[in-house]
Amino acid sequence: MDHKCWERPEDMDTPRNVYKVSAQNPGSDVAAETAAALAASSIVFRDSDPTYSSKLLQAAIKVFNFADRYRGSYSDSLGSVVCPFYCSYSGYHDELLWGASWIYKASGTSSYMQYIRSNGHTLGADDDGFSFSWDDKRPGTKILLSKEFLEKNSEDFQLYKAHSDNYICSLMSGTPGFQAQYTRGGLLFKGSESNLQYVTSTSFLLLTYAKYLSANGGVVRCGSSTVTGENLVKLAKTQVDYILGNNPTKMSYMVGFGERYPKHIHHRGSSLPSIRDRTQHISCNEGFQYLYAGSPNPNVLVGAIVGGPDSNDNFSDDRNNYQQSEPATYINAPFVGAVAYFSAKPPTHG
C-alpha cells in the first residue's frame, strides 16, 4: 500500500497492517536478526545499565530459541506482503549463525560456541559471501567470529578467519582473489539500485576487521600478497570520502552536507510541503504531483545518504529515479560506524 501513495506522515490514511511470525508461520531470518540486535545492544549497555543489559540478553536468547526451533523464512510465511521488495533472498541460515554469534559474543556461554561449531557448516560457514547487506549477514558473521580466532587462536574459528580473508582479498585490487568492481572515480560498485548500501556496509566491515587485525598483530594473506589493517583503513577512507564529496562530480551523497548535495530525493516527507506551509490534507493520489515536480525538495532531510551514482560515476538528481535518489536506513546505519571510527582517530597527514 505504501508504494501506491505519495503522502506526508501526518496525512497518512492507508491501512497500517501489522504482521507477526509464529510457530505456524515461522520467520527465522527476522527473529534471529532481532536476537542479534538485542544481544549486540546488551553489550552497549553492559556498563551503564547492567539490569537493562541483562534484560536485553535474556530476550535475545528467547527470540533466538524461537528462531531456531521453528525454522522457516518470513518470505514463505508472508510472501505477498514482503515480496518482491523485501523477500529474504539469502534465506534464514545466515541469520541463525549471525544471531548465535552475537549471543556468544554478548554472553560468552559455551553452548553458543558449541552451536556455532555444530551448525556452522550447514548454516553457511563454508560459503564465501561477498556482500554484507540487510539481507545477507555472511561476511559480517565471518569477521565477527574471526576476532575469536585472532584473540584466542581457537581452531574452531580458523575457518572464519580464512573466509574473512577471502572477502578482503575480493576487494583489494592487484591481489589474487580480487573480483570487485570499482568505478573510474574509485567507488565500489555492486548494483544499480541503492549501490551505496554496499559501500557503507563494506567500509564498516573493513574498519572493524582492521581494528581486530591491528589489536592482535594479524594480517590478511591473499596468495603471495600481504594486506595489513592499514590497507583496509585506507580503502575504507576512500569510500567514505567519495560519499562525502571527493568524487568526479564533487557531489556529496549525504543530504545537507557539503556545498553540493542531492536536492530531489525520493522521500515523501522531504518532497511534500510541510504541514506548516500547507495545513490542508494532501490525499494519497494528490501527492504524486510533488513526486513528479521538477522543483527541489522543500524540506532538507539532513544526514540522509541516497542510493548514489551509477557505474560511470554519474548521478541523476531526479526524485523519480529511486535507484539513485532514495535514502534508506540500511545505507545510513553502517556509515555511522565508519564515520565514528574516523572521527575518533587523530587526523593523519597525506
The separation of the N and C termini measures 50 Å
The percentage of residues in β strands lies in under 5%
The backbone outline, from C-alpha atoms, is: globular
Uncertain runs are none
Helix count, DSSP H or I runs of 4 or more residues = 14
CATH architecture verdict of the largest domain: Alpha/alpha barrel
Q: What structural class is derived from the secondary structure elements?
A: mainly alpha
Q: Radius of gyration, rounded?
A: 22 Å
Task: Please provide a written account of the structure.
This protein has a two-stranded antiparallel sheet. Helix 7 packs parallel to helix 9 (196-215). The protein is mainly alpha-helical and 350 residues long. It is globular and about 65 Å long. It is built from 14 helices and 2 strands. The relative contact order is 0.10. Residues 2-339 form the Glycoside hydrolase family domain. Keywords: Carbohydrate metabolism, Cellulose degradation, Glycosidase, Hydrolase, Polysaccharide degradation. GO terms for molecular function: cellulase activity. This is Endoglucanase.
